[in-house]
Each structure stands twice: as C-alpha cells, then as structure tokens.
Amino acid sequence: MKQKLALVNGTIYNGYEIREDAVLLINQDRITGIVGKEAVPEGYQVVDVQGANICPGLIDLQLYGTGEDLFSAELTAESLEKINLNLLKQGCTAYMMTLATNTLEVFKEAIAVFRQTKPSAALGLHLEGPFLNEAKRGAHPAELIMEATLPILEDLLEGNDDVVKMMTIAPEKIKQECVDYLNKKGLLLSAGHSTATFEEATQAFDHGVKTATHLWNAMSPLQHREVGLPGAVFNHPKAYSSIIVDGIHVNYEAVKISKQAMGERLFLITDAVATCHKGIYQHVLNGDHFVLPDGTLSGSALTQLQSVQNCVQNVGIPLDESIRMATLYPARLIERSDIGNLEEGSMANVLVFDADFQVQQVIFEGETFL
Fold first, then answer.
1. Strand pairing report for 240-244 and 211-212
2. pLDDT tens digit sequence for 155-177
3. What percent of the chain has pLDDT over 90?
C-alpha cells in the first residue's frame, strides 16, 4: 500500500550526501525530499529505522535468476515474477533481466514473455551474446555463437527495442554498421567475451560502445606489451565497466586496482545465476559460486547488497562510494535520473539495511515489501 512515510533515525546515503540527523520523506511513489527532524509535515507516518542505513534501491544491469529460478530455462511469466519478487526482497529495485548466448528463437520467446509479463522492477532485457568471440566464450556454448549481420539484427529487434535494452558484443567481431543500427535502436552496448586489442576496444568506445561486461572476466588480458580490453577501459575517459565483486570472478586486489584506475566509471553487477539442472546452462552451486557440470565458472551467487558489502569489507572502498557503485553510477550509464538517488521527485525506491548488511526494509515505488 502506497502512503506518506517519514523514515527517521537512520543514516541517509543520497549520491554524494550523507545525512545522519535528517528524515527521508516519501509521498506515494515519489521521494518528497530530505528534511530536518523538526520539519516533518503533518500526515506522514513516522517509521523509526533504529539506526540503520537508508539508501536508494540497488541497480543490477546483469543477472540471470535467483534461487532456483533461471529465466532462460523456464521462459515463463511465473519465473519472471518470482525472480522479480526475490530481487525486491534483496533490495534490488531495478535490474536488467539477462540471457546468455542462446538460439535466436529462445531470445524471441523471452522477449515475448517479458513483454507480456512486464515485471515491475525490470528495466528490460540484456542479451549477453550471441555476437561474441568464441575464444573467450566462458560458459557460452561455442556452437551458438554467431556473427552479427544487419538482417539478423533486424529480424531479432524490429519491434522489440521496447524490451531489449542492452547487449554484450565482442567489438572485434562486429561491423560498425551493426553497431550503428543497435545504437539507433537505443541499445546500451557493452564490450565483452572479447579478444579485442587496445586499439580495437578504444575504437569501439569511440564509436558507440559505452561500457564493458564483467571487467577481467572473458576478455583479453592486460599485458605489458598489449594492454587489451582492460587497458582500453582504464585509459578511455568515458568508458564504463561492470565488475563482479565476489572474490572469485575477480581477486579483491584486482578490484582495488580497477577502482583506482576508473573511479566513478566502475559499477557493480552480480552476474547472479540460479540452480538449474536442465537446458544448455546447468548451473551447479559450488559453495559461494556457480559452475557448469564440467567445472567451468558460470556465475555468482551474490546479491547486490553483498556486492556492496564486499567492496567495503574486502576491498576497502568506503560505504558511501560502494553504494554509489550500485546506484548512482549504473543509473548514470543508462541515463536515468529518477532512480539511483533519493532526490525530490525521484522514484520512491529505498533500501534500509543494518550494520551487518542485512535487509531491514525495502520500498519500491512507494510500496513496502519488507
């Protein structure tokens, strides 16, 4: 039920601002503002968060499922709704539902199901593939990787650009005319699963590719005579990159180096998958991460709040900056000023969590979920 709420007795993290003696006001589905304790208007229900942290709802631009619900394996409205609800309970209030390399028929079916279901917190679909480099395929089936052509892209995306909002591509494997077409359709393009040289990656970042997918994973290495895709990401003034901070996909020291090099251009994703024993992606939980049956690393078991926690506790990034890596910076990349912050007029998407990084309360579009 949407209502007028005043969240008191917490530390408010809003962009670059930290407020300890203030109140967050919510009116229906919008943020009303941040005011002093003495300035709470009449008619607001006061909610004491008992010293917890208050921040914008978290944003995740790459995940595949939660728990035992992998969207690509089910392709049903029910699986989408379950994933959506689980993510909201975790404090993730905006996300890109991601599908790894698959047949075009599966992609089309996923698009149709997504359009029909319209999961409330989803920003759209992120297609990670199939236009990748087989040499850096990781868990993606080699037989399903293909070369992008305009006819293939038109067949997949004509009339579907309201659903497909992001795509990971290998820049050395795609022609500029295809990049131009995808940009015209409004897709956010990300360089990943790629052997791109520094020059190839830099050219891509100069001509329509805005970010990179899971920095360090499934990409050309940074070496002293060829710095590859990571070097291009580090050196390009505008290129963003996502990174998986679970200590498994990327060593925490590498995260620290990446953060020092990229600053506000580095943002968090979970790359989270789900337990699945059917289809082409059979993910097996191996302690704190997922692998394919042959042992290939296939995804994380993270929540986005755990990503923030790892940044603080294992990388040494301050809490306010770690929060921005999961809120403000991805929102900036997708050009959304109404999420990822607690400014007046923004969506009332709010996460309340305690000092142990346990979710205490989630508000989505003004409605309380926990």
1. parallel
2. 999 999 999 999 999 999 999 99
3. 89
Q: Which residue shows structure tokens 């494997």?
A: 173
Q: What is the Rg, in whole angstroms, of the alpha carbon atoms belonging to the chain?
A: 20
The token duo for 318 is 């301050």
The partner residues of 8 in beta bridges, in order of sequence, read 48
Residue linked to tokens 């295809």? 178
Residue 60 has φ and ψ, to the nearest 5°, of -135, 115
CA diameter of the chain: 65
Query: What phi, psi does 207 have (nearest 5°)?
Result: -135, 50
Residue 310, both tokens: 């790892």
Q: Cα–Cα distance between 47 and 221 in angstroms, integer?
A: 49
Give residue-wise pLDDT tens across range 10-42.
Answer: 999 999 999 999 999 999 999 999 999 889 999
Q: Which residues are catalytic?
A: 271
Phi, psi of 23 (to 5 degrees): -130, 135
Cis omega (within 30 of 0) on the bond before 130? yes
Q: What is the DSSP letter of 247?
A: S
For tokens 């790892």, name the residue.
310
Taking alpha carbons only, the member of 354, 357, 328 closest to residue 10 is 354
pTM: 0.97
CATH 2.60.120.10 is the classification of domain 58-333: no
- Crossing angle for the helix pair 198-206 and 228-235, to the nearest 10 degrees: 40
Cβ-based neighbour number of residue 51 at 10 Å: 11
What kind and span of H or E run contains 198? helix 198-206
4-56+341-368 is a CATH 3.40.190.10 domain? no
Q: What angle do CA 15, 42, 339 make, to 5 degrees?
A: 25
- Encode pLDDT of 270-316 as tens digits: 999 988 788 888 888 888 888 888 888 889 999 999 999 999 999 99
Q: Which residues contact 358 (CB under 8 A, 6 or more apart)?
A: none
**265: which DSSP letter?**
G
Cross-strand pairs, 31: 26
Among left, alpha and beta (phi > 0; psi -120 to 50; other), residue 103 is beta
Query: Domain residues of the chain, as ranges?
Result: 4-56+341-368, 58-333
